[in-house]
Every structure is written in C-alpha cells, then in structure tokens.
Amino acid sequence: MGGRSAPLSSVQRHEGSKTVPAEFSDVKHVRGTMSLGRYDDPNSGTSSFSILLGAAPHLDGKYTVFGRMTSGDEVLNAMEKVETRTEGIFVMPKERIQIHSSYVYSASQDSAAGSGNPRLARCSAQLAQARAQVKSLQLDLHSMRVEKLP
Asked: Is there a single domain that holds both residue 121 and residue 79?
C-alpha cells in the first residue's frame, strides 16, 4: 500500500490492508520466480514481492512462490545491471524499480474455456489475455491522468 503512486480507492485500501497466509511448496526459487514478501511471521505476506534474478535455495520452503515469468527475460537482464544493496539475506536495488503494467495469465482457465477444442481454447486464451491487457492499460491511463492532470 505504501509504494503505490496512484491513489487507492476505499476497496483497494481494504484489500491492501489484508495479509496473505504462507503457502509453502516444493517449487524452487530460481530465475524468474515471483516470491511473496513478508515480515518475520510467515503468515504476514502483503503486496510486496520479489522477482528472482537467480537461484535462491535459502528461500525454498520459507517464502511463498506465487508465479514465474514466462517471457521478458530482457527485463531481468536489465534489472541485473542496476546498483544493489544488501539487507540481511536480501539483495535489492538501491533505487526503487516500479512496475507500470502487468496482467495475469492462467493456463488452467484457457483449457477450461476451450472444452476440448484446441482452436477454441487458443481463441479463448487470446481473448482472456487481451481483456487482461486492456484492463491493465486502463489502470495505467488512470495513473497517468492522476499524475498529469489537476
């Protein structure tokens, strides 16, 4: 909640105040893994997260893995070049890296949407992905308007 540049609605503030319980798994912390940030309490996850630039076995079984990058390795390459600082077991950029846009893509939704027809499943997946991107762009546009307009 504290790092967002666009103002939060009351619904977003309510959601942002919630914590996420730990969900440990056998999934390894490797390059491109998205891992939920938390405080000392394993069940104190918030909206903070890390995108790993390499293997981090010391996080395995201790931090919740909730996703992985499926494309955009050039972004990770660029992130590797920024100056960093060390805080405890974590290495982080000296200056904040801000995400301007993102969307969720779910392979399980795609297969359910296609009901066994691969062409329909592919079309449904592309439609869902396009909708998610449009929604993300709407949020970006709102942020720009808030920032630039009185």
From this structure: no
Last residue of a domain, one of 99, 126, 141: 99
Whether residue 5 has pLDDT greater than 60: yes
Which residues have C-beta within 8 Å of that of residue 51, sequence separation ≥ 6? 32, 33, 34, 69, 76, 79
Count, in order, helices (H) and strands (E) of the chain. Answer: 4, 5
Contact 45, 38 (CB under 8 A): yes
Percent of the chain with pLDDT over 70: 83
Q: Show the domain range for 137.
A: 100-150
Q: Where would I find the beta strands (DSSP E) of the chain?
A: 33-36, 49-51, 65-68, 84-87, 90-93
- For residue 110, pLDDT over 50 is answered with no
